[in-house]
Specification:
Elements lengths: L7 H15 L4 H11 L5 H13 L4 H6 L1 H7 L5 H6 L27 H9 L5 H24 L5 H7 L2 H20 L3 H22 L5 H32 L2 H11 L14 H12 L15 E4 L2 E4 H10 L3 E6 L4 E4 L26 H13 L4 E8 L2 E11 L5 E10 L1 H13 L11
Antiparallel strand pairs: 1-2, 3-4, 3-7, 5-6, 6-7
C-alpha cells in the first residue's frame, strides 16, 4: 500500500515514533516498526509530527536535540527520495491539479518532489542555488570524512568548510521567516534554525582551536555528521515545502536578496532571466507619485536641524560607516540603509515583524531589549561579538520623540577592528613601564 495523502492517524503514528526516540529508545528499534507501517512519508507529515510534539508539551529544545535522529529515521522513505530514483513524470496542468495547487509551479501539493525537481532545474532559481550548494557540501563532507579518518585535516579544508555558515545564513534570512510569517509553517524555523546555529557555532569553535588531538577529530566528525543530516532534511523536507508554498514573486525576492550574500563552496553565481526581467518590468511600471504629493530625489525634507533632499539624505545614511536598522513602535522593520552588510538584511524583511528575522535562541533576547525600551527602563544596550574573525559592536538604542515617547528601536552595527588595530599599535609603541609611578 502506498500512502499519498497524510491523515491525522498517520501524523499520530509518526509522532509516536518521535516520542519513542525522545524517551531514549534506539533508532534501529524504532525504525524497524516504522518501515513496517510506512512505505513513503510526506515532508509535511514529518514537519506536522514535530509541531504536534511541541503543541502537546514536548520542549522545543528536546525536539531540536533529536533533529538529527528524526532525519535518520526517515532515510530512504521520503517521497522526494523515491521520486529522485524514478524517471521524471510530465508535470500535470494547473487545471488538472485540483484546488491544492502550488502558487509558483501550478503543481498539485502532493507533487512536492516534482515541484522541487522542476525549480532546481531552472538556471539561477534560488531553489537550484540551495540544491547545488548541498551537492557541493556533500562532496566536501566526503573529503573531510576521509581526512578525519587519516587524521589529516588541513587548514585549507577547514577554510572551505566555513562556507557552511554562508549556506545557513541564507536559509535563516530568506526561507525560514517567509515560511513562518507568510504561511504559518513554524517547524523549520523552530527546529532546523537552531540546529543550523549549533552546527555553525561548533564548527567555528573547532576551526579556531589550537590543539587538533584525537578528541578534536572526534568532535569534528560528529559535527560534520550533523551537517550531513541537515542536508537530508533540506532536500527532503525544507526545499520541497518551499517549492510548493512560495509564490513566483516571493522567489523573485529571494533571488534578488541572495545577491547580497557571498557565494558558497566556490559555486558561480547564476542569473535567473525571469527574475531579472520581472525587476525591469516592475521598475518601468512603477506608479508615479500623485501630483498633490510629489516625492522625488530632489524633494526637500525639512527637519529641526535643517533640510536635505531625499537623494542627499539617502547618500548620507549610506555613507555612515554603520549598518543601520530601524524598527517602529509596533515592532515592524521599517528601514535598512544600503550597502554591503556583515549582518545581512533582506529587503523582503521590510514591513515584517522584527522577531521573525531572528533565530529561536536570539528572539527572547531581542524581545527583552525592545520591551525594556518601551517600558523606559533602558535606552541603550551594547553587545560586543566576533564575526568572521573581526570585532563587532552591535548597539540597540531606544528612539524617542521630544516628549520622550517611544517611537521605535535603532540597531547600529560597527566593525571595530580599526579601533583594536589602533590600540594594539599604540601599546606596541609604548615603552615598557618598570615604575608604577610612570603610569600616572
Amino acid at each position: 500500500m502506498k500512502e499519498s495523502k497524510y491523515t491525522d492517524d498517520r501524523i499520530t503514528q509518526l509522532q509516536s515514533y518521535l516520542e519513542r526516540l525522545a524517551q531514549g529508545e534506539s533508532l534501529d528499534s524504532v525504525r524497524t516498526d516504522f518501515v513496517q507501517h510506512f512505505q513513503t512519508v510526506e515532508p509535511t507529515e514529518i514537519m506536522k509530527a514535530e509541531q504536534e510534539l511541541m503543541r502537546r508539551g514536548t520542549p522545543l529544545t528536546t525536539v531540536q536535540k533529536l533533529c538529527d535522529l528524526h532525519s535518520a529515521l526517515f532515510h530512504g522513505s521520503t517521497c522526494t527520495e523515491q521520486a529522485a530514483a524514478r524517471p521524471a513524470a510530465p508535470a500535470p496542468s494547473p487545471a488538472a491539479a485540483g484546488p491544492a495547487v502550488s502558487p509558483s509551479t501550478g503543481l498539485a501539493y502532493t507533487d512536492r518532489e516534482e515541484a522541487a525537481r522542476h525549480l532546481a532545474g531552472l538556471t539561477g532559481h534560488p531553489l537550484r542555488m540551495f540544491s547545488q550548494e548541498n551537492r557541493a557540501l556533500e562532496l566536501l563532507l566526503k573529503q573531510a570524512q576521509k581526512a578525519i579518518t587519516n587524521l589529516a585535516v588541513t587548514p585549507e579544508l577547514l577554510i572551505r568548510l566555513r562556507d557552511i555558515a554562508i549556506h545557513y545564513a541564507k536559509k535563516g534570512d530568506l526561507l525560514y521567516p517567509l515560511l513562518k510569517v507568510n504561511y504559518g509553517i513554524t517547524g523549520p524555523s523552530d527546529v532546523m534554525w537552531t540546529v543550523d546555529d549549533e552546527i555553525r557555532d561548533e564548527l567555528s569553535r573547532l576551526i579556531k582551536a589550537q590543539l587538533q588531538d584525537e578528541s578534536w577529530y572526534d568532535q569534528l566528525g560528529r559535527v560534520l555528521k550533523r551537517a550531513g543530516e541537515m542536508i537530508y532534511k533540506e532536500d527532503n523536507i525544507l526545499l520541497p515545502i518551499c517549492a510548493v508554498t512560495f509564490t513566483e514573486q516571493e522567489w523573485y525576492g529571494i533571488y534578488h536578496d541572495a545577491k547580497d550574500y557571498d557565494c558558497a563552496f566556490c559555486l558561480p553565481r547564476e542569473v535567473w532571466p525571469a527574475a531579472e526581467a520581472a525587476a525591469e518590468t516592475a521598475t518601468a511600471a512603477a506608479p508615479q507619485p500623485a501630483p498633490a504629493a510629489p516625492l522625488t530625489a530632489d524633494s526637500e525634507i525639512y527637519m529641526p536641524g535643517g533640510h536635505m533632499t531625499v537623494a542627499q539624505l539617502t547618500a548620507l545614511l549610506n555613507t555612515l560607516p554603520l549598518e543601520i536598522s530601524f524598527v517602529d513602535a509596533d515592532n515592524i522593520n521599517r528601514f535598512f540603509n544600503e550597502g554591503h552588510k556583515v549582518f545581512k538584511r533582506p529587503h523582503m524583511a521590510i514591513d515584517r515583524e522584527v522577531f521573525s528575522c531572528h533565530p529561536p535562541k536570539i528572539e527572547p533576547m531581542v524581545r527583552r531589549i525592545i520591551d525594556s525600551f518601551r517600558a523606559g527602563t533602558r535606552d541603550k544596550v551594547p553587545v560586543w561579538m566576533e564575526r568572521n574573525g573581526r570585532s563587532m559592536l552591535v548597539t540597540y538604542m531606544a528612539v524617542r520623540d521630544r516628549n520622550h515617547n517611544y517611537v521605535g528601536t535603532m540597531e547600529l552595527i560597527q566593525d571595530m577592528e580599526f579601533a583594536k588595530e589602533h590600540f594594539q599599535a599604540v601599546n606596541a609603541a609604548r615603552p615598557l613601564q618598570t615604575n608604577p609611578q610612570d603610569l600616572y
